[in-house]
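ARCHIVE CARD
Drawer: 12
Card no.: 0347
Subject: one protein chain, sequence and derived structure
Cross-reference: see card 0346
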Amino acid sequence: MPKLSDLFELEYGHSLELNRLEQVTGPDAVNFVGRAARNNGVTARVRRLPGIAPAAAGTVSVALGGQGGAGVAFLQPFPYYCGRDVMVLKPKHKMSEQEVLWWVTCITANRFRFGFGRQANRTLKDLHLPERSAMPSWVGGTDVERYNDAERPAGPGGVA
């Protein structure tokens, strides 16, 4: 069984504190990912910080601790800053979005290992994941583009 560190490069996030950042809206705002277990981990949108590059879009955020969020992983589709106790995972080889989502599902399925005060800081890299051969066929066969307009209303001007 491969370990998480066989598939991803792991590095600690920015460890920023939201109360010290300026929350903003608009096209220049950057997502702030904390240890939340919902909303893709995004807890706010903040002003871009000079001299601090956001984590890259297409990486995975994993909450290392926190109430209810420890061990929860999310694929981040936009650049983002991290709060404390968030790990950023970068695929070691080229992966499709569907494959990354599969691994995110596998990581999150192991979140029970990190409850009750047990943070994932030291042990996340050694988390055992299924063999690549056990990956379901839908991972490579799903057409994600087909759902691009799913949020548009049905009817005139929308998806029929």
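Annotation on reverse: The beta strands are 8-12, 30-33, 42-46, 60-63, 73-75, 80-82, 86-91. The first strand starts at residue 8 and ends at 12.
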